[in-house]
């Protein structure tokens, strides 16, 4: 069971890392930038979570095997960037799967470290979306989740909150975890398909012209 | 007294969070971006400080009540962005109050964690200005304090240094703390009013055309 | 010996800080931005490493003397920006020396904190290149190492890996450390001279037009 969990975790890291390496291609970075950016997105969310819960060395540094998926992703993108491009929908699918998975596992790691249920759910969201935010910030883009196509942070929050709630109520198990991840994944995919989006920050009054805030 | 301190802290978080949510409106982010950006600016400085002093879980995660002000800020901005726009000077005022408050409380938290006086003062500055830097970096802007209107980091440094000095000398108390925060606040407001600014990084020789540094 | 090591470390911090302050001049920041940016690049890599290895307070905060080099750098750049500009090749030389030094010392600090050899080498790279990435991200640029002139991250990785390997094999000493740093330095300088570069992220097929990744 631990092997299944590790394998799924590494798979999630891999698909997130591919998204980082593909962004590196689009921004005309070199192979070093591709590897670094892929590492940021694949491992960044989990490292952020582990630094915050302050429970020793982040697992990505404790277990060197976590470095393998970003390397494989950079190599795959180096040789097959054209092919990967064709599977764009496949990529969105795997990104959604990674996000769904991390929203559940990230919350569990935080609960296991003794965080309260609310903080654990927030950290589940950090794990699920943090890598992508780091990717976009480091590559000098606006984070995609700030104006996402489809819903992204909201399904992650729902998954993390349900995981935290189920654990608190004593209902959590392999079945519950799988069901929650499936709901998160489905919500993400359906929201992409039907172009659902969160409302604008300033409501639907048109965008006011604000002066600088500070 | 602890309640007063918590209330003031939460008020500071709230006004900082409003500045993040207003930036989200100006950049046409959605409500998720508004909430995330407001959280970054309201809680980012304190989280940075707590991660550096390595004294367990950052208090923003330990006490879920810290998540309330950013949510309220995002909701207020969603419904009242137009009204908030009119109170721009009010906002600058409260931002200055938050900065003044955090420069004192941030230093105290670092001292309480056993940091030396110099490091505690630096961490007070990190608490006071860190959230704003994170806000600007994440939103893909140049940090405003790098070319601030009026003085910003300098009053924060003065407040943090005075707090650290007063604690070291055994003079710190409610009265001293209030007086220091008032001085910081006044310096910020006066510098805005009279358009004081720090000198340019390269002196007043005009800006040389430098080649790339690396 | 510890004094030599501290002196070299502070010298590395100083030359990195100069690169941050010079970037501040080019971006027309004020003296506060110059100091903050210089501090980020001089101390950022080491702070990142120390936060990840979770071995208490980062040494930059524990020993206030680490704050001296960024202050000196900001003052030097303020008064002598024009002169520093003429010594651009000198600056690249010292930046390379700092990077070479930090790739060795960063790895040693991580090993001393009990990290496994692979993680220690990665953290050596983080120490050597992290400050520069933080500098570029905070100043709203694309990190230079993502599309570096000459090789940068690769020599750092070679230096960190050799340091980790030599320690593991029991061969590490002052002589070995100096030799490794010299190799890293030479590789960086030679790669600049002969315009070596890493291949592009997407291989040599031309840049495909990819759709957004998420």
UniProtKB/TrEMBL annotation, chains A, B, C:
Entries under Pfam families matching the protein: Gly_transporter
Localization per record: Cell membrane
Source species, domain of life: Bacteria
Boundaries of every Glycine transporter domain copy: 7-81, 93-165
Principal subcellular localisation of the protein: membrane
Stretches of the chain forming a coiled coil according to its record: none
Transmembrane segments: 6-25, 32-53, 65-84, 91-113, 119-138, 150-166, 172-190
Entry keyword set: Cell membrane, Membrane, Transmembrane, Transmembrane helix
Membrane topology: Multi-pass membrane protein
InterPro entries for this protein: Gly_transporter
Recorded family membership: Belongs to the UPF0126 family.
Name of the protein in its database record: Trimeric intracellular cation channel family protein
Source species: Promicromonospora alba
